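Journal club side-thread
Mid-discussion, someone asked how the predicted structure for our own chain would compare to the paper's figures. Pasting it here so we can look after the session.
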Amino acid sequence: MRRNGTPNTCLLLLALLTGCASTPPADSPPERPGASDTAAPAVKPANEETYQGILPCPDCEGLKVTLTLDHDVQAYRTTEVRLEDQDAQSVPRQTSGPWAQHRGTETDPDAIVYQLDPDRPGSTRHFLRLDASRIKLLDEFKQEFWSPFNLILERTD
């Protein structure tokens, strides 16, 4: 509050925007029971980022990896499928857990690094954010390494 008793303009604007964001538009129809069964597919929440690509595999032709980062609950989900011969059926491996965002690497103090399973030393994976649409697999020391194989996952959403 200001001294003269009028509300602070910024706080008032913030309160109005918050109230508007949680209220559905007046012209939107109410949701019918069972309507979700026939409705269009759900849109991915804006708080999630999904990346996909093929990463190296020590004992196969590669891993098709899909990684989703949920920013609201700081949780990730991955699906990994081994690239095998055309005739072989590969069962997807799914994992999930916590992730954290860190700033800085040895060579770039402003770099953004996503750390999967930060609470599990030895199982932690690191990805460097290259730009808004690409992340790159790092080694266990959060450092880039040379590889003749692709180490980049690209954003799909």
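Post-session note: The longest strand covers residues 93-103.
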